Amino acid sequence: MTFMDLEDPRYAYMFGFLQADGHLSAGTGQKGHLTVEISYRDIDILHAFQELCPYYSSIRERTRATNFAESHRSAIWTLCALEARNRLAELGIPYGKKSRRITPPRVPFSKRDYLRGVIDADGAVGLTAQGLPFVSLSTTSTAIATYLCRYTKLALGIPKTTSRNARDRAYNIMYMRELGVAVADHLYYPGSLALERKRSTAAEVSAWIRPAHMSPPRPRRSWTQLEDRLLLDAPTIAEAAEKLGRSEQSCNLRRWRLRKKHQTQGE
């Protein structure tokens, strides 16, 4: 078994998780370490990483006050081996602050397992307060956000675009209802390595069926180049919506995206 062979689904998952939730620190000389700190309830995944790693590593726990709880119990996995750290850095986990700099691997890798690792660490799977299924990811990495959207389009036929939000400049990607079901069912397949609580929730999401009283999903209608020109030339959003047979909300959002794209290209 080669350490971090990303064509192995277990290592692909582990690498995605480490990219999102791990931290590589460099010390003096050849010293340094990789650490992952997560809630104690998820400690089983750290034991799985420890078993997959052929180098010595340790797991410890600590309890401390946080902004969310007076007594938060966490588990910390630490790996110091230089050879292991070099391999992780070579594959794409940079030292220090990395959230905006991480990218999908540039070597062959198991794609859906990698993305499941990223979502287990930085995403969410579940049901809303209204009982609607969803899979989501919040990331500040443009490369990761773009890759997830491209992957779900190619693998599942789900078109998705995203942009940074104004508040914290993060990308918040959400798949709801049938789209959430499809993504959860695809990523959390039987026997795959995952956080147990998210695997359990993913099974609930996958079992969701649209209630009879809920309106059926509207088919997605792609924008054509001609429609884009008509939209930009229209004097008002209301006139554009009437001419194109689309909602004002849809036209307003599309016009904003086109103008933003043109501004970016002109910079």
Instruction: Estimate percent helicity.
Output: 40-55%
| Overall pLDDT | 91
Order of helices and strands: HEEHEEHHEEHEHHHHH
Q: What is the overall silhouette?
A: globular
Stretches where pLDDT falls below 50 for ≥5 residues? none
Helix-and-strand structural type: alpha+beta
Strand line-up in the sheet with most strands: 1-2-4-3
Write the layout of secondary structure elements.
Blueprint: H1 9-21, E1 22-26, E2 32-39, H2 43-52, E3 57-64, E4 72-79, H3 82-91, H4 111-122, E5 123-127, E6 133-139, H5 142-156, E7 171-176, H6 177-187, H7 196-206, H8 225-233, H9 237-244, H10 248-266
Antiparallel strand pairs: 1-2, 2-4, 3-4, 5-6, 6-7
Helix pairs in contact: 1-4, 6-7, 8-9, 9-10
